[in-house]
Each structure stands twice: as structure tokens, then as C-alpha cells.
Amino acid sequence: MTICEELVERERSYLSPYAVCSADTKGRERPMAPCPLRTEFQRDRDRILHCKSFRRLKFKTQVFIAPEGDHYRTRLTHTLEVSQVARTIARALKLNEDLAEAIALGHDLGHTPFGHSGERSLNRLTQDGFRHNEQSLRVVEVLEGGEGLNLTWEVRDGILNHSGKNRPATLEGECVARADRIAYINHDIDDAIRAGVLREFELPQDLLHVLGETHGQRINTMIKDIVRESQGQPHLYMSEPIQNASNELRQFLFDHVYMDKWRKEEEERCDHVIVSLFEYFMEHPQKMPMEYVQIAYRDGTERAVTDFLACMTDRYALRTYENLFIPVSYPVI
């Protein structure tokens, strides 16, 4: 037996009946020769880790735009935290940890510069709207490497449905959807306190009494509750008290961090950058890199400009804006 075959046998003997065995994947859009060392979901994880879109996440905003401090989360560190939480839940429930990890690592590849501010701008500018989960799927199916990463159906389904109204088709995908919310609820509190936007005594004490006083305690409470409520179940659940407290804490963040007045001026500046770049490249599509010019010929200019802007990091978007719209000063001789 190859190492891969041994791993598959181990999955079949250990995983829950509700888990997805890697040998039972619905497959890829293009056939690939099997790997003797890795399962199909392990290959997907590695393909995502080595792609350019994953590396760009380190310079994309999570909440605080282009922060000076070294300890604020970026889209990359958020992704790693989601992966850790999803793997913990999957492992405890005897689900396929490799599948959960691959979905988690790919779930935000299509996020815009400037976080959800950039997403809202592109959603307003484009005819069909813009949603980062759909763009993440487009990255792995079309954009990365010019032909996509050719991932398995289960990973692509989990990436598409980690947010939005539709439930992922696998429990591993549900792990990521749950982990995404657990991660950002907790690390955004941490970053908001570090930035001085929130002070610890302002956090709702009744919710902390249910979930935990510290970052680690709250994550631990949420994960343990999911594992306890979901044992032997075909879906993932939270108990009513923990679910309600989590929802209320999330709403608190929307009211005091995500949509608070302190962000208004910053988001207006970000929107100005996105709108200016969108309008410029709609008028001058030939100024984009050749790969996006080709998309414009194939799928239309709006689609190409949307892809180009969504792939930008914060600093690349700002640098492009400066190069296009800020006059260059010349030294006095």
C-alpha cells in the first residue's frame, strides 16, 4: 500500500459516518493522477498554501486598515485562526480535519483590499454585486494561475458557502463557517481594545459572564459548546444560551466597532480609492496587467476590473492610486 492508501484506510476506520472520506470526494473539474503521499484534501490544502492569492492575504485588512502596529490581525492571520478553530472542532467530532483545513485556508482568498469596506464599494459599483465568498470561489476556479487550482468539489463548496444564506454541503464546511464567526468575534474585540476603540470595561458584562472574561475563555466556551451539542448529529449546533450570547456579542461589535462613527471618515477614504480605481480602469482597461486584459476580452471589462481590484492588497491599491492621481514632485536643482 502507498502512504496515501494507508491514510485513506485510517480515515475509513476512524472518521465519523458524517465525515467525508478523501477517497469519496466528488472529484475535480480536471482529472489528476493520484499522489502516493497525500490524500486529495491534503493536496488541496497544499495548493492553496502555495498560491499567490494566499500570500497576498498578509497585506489585506481584517478590520483596521493598514495598521502601524505589528500585532493587529490581517486577513492572513484571521485565516490561520479560522483554520485552527475549524481543525479543533473537526478533530473533536471525528470529521476530516484535512478538508476543514483546506476550506479554511481558502475561504477569504477573494477578499478585497480595505476589508468589508472595499467589499461594500465593489458591491455598489458592479452590476451583479460583489460578495467575497463568490470571489474566493472564482479565485480558486478561474483566476489563480490562469486556470484555477483545480480543487475538489467539497473544498470549493465549503469556500463558497462559508458565509451567506446557504449551508455548506459537508460538516467540515460547517466547521469553517462556525470557526469564521468564532474567530472574528473574538479577535476583533482584541484588536479594538488594542486600538483604543473599545475599553475592556465597555464590553457587555452579561455576555462575558456567559462566554468568558478573556479572549481564550470565550473561544474555548464556543468550541466546547459546539462539540457538546453536535456529537452524533448531521449538522453543527450551539446551545441556545451560547448561541444567543454569541449573536449579541457580534451585534455589539457591529454597533461599536464595524459601523461606529469612528470608521466613517476612514471608510469614505477607502471608498474614494476603490471608486477612483474602478472608474479609471473601466475607461482604460489596457492599463491593467495582461492577465486582466485577457479577462476583459473574454468576460467583459467590468468583470476584469472587479477581479483586478479584488486581488489588490491594501498597499498595492494605495500605491496604484498614488501613481495614477497624485502629482509627482520634482527636486529643485
Topology:
Layout: H1 3-14, H2 40-49, H3 52-56, H4 75-92, H5 97-106, H6 115-125, H7 132-143, H8 153-160, H9 171-195, H10 205-211, H11 215-230, H12 240-258, H13 264-283, H14 290-299, H15 301-311, H16 314-325
Q: If you had to describe this structure to a student in words, what would you say it looks like?
A:
This protein has a domain at 42-264: Orthogonal Bundle (Hypothetical protein af1432), CATH 1.10.3210. 62% of the residues lie in helices and 0% in strands. The protein is built from 16 helices and no strands. It has helices at residues 3-14, 40-49, 52-56, 75-92, 97-106, 115-125, 132-143, 153-160, 171-195, 205-211, 215-230, 240-258, 264-283, 290-299, 301-311, 314-325. The longest helix is centred in the middle third of the chain and has 25 residues, at 171-195. It is globular.
Write a short abstract of this structure.
It contains 16 helices and no strands.
Spell out the key features of this protein:
mainly alpha, Hypothetical protein af1432
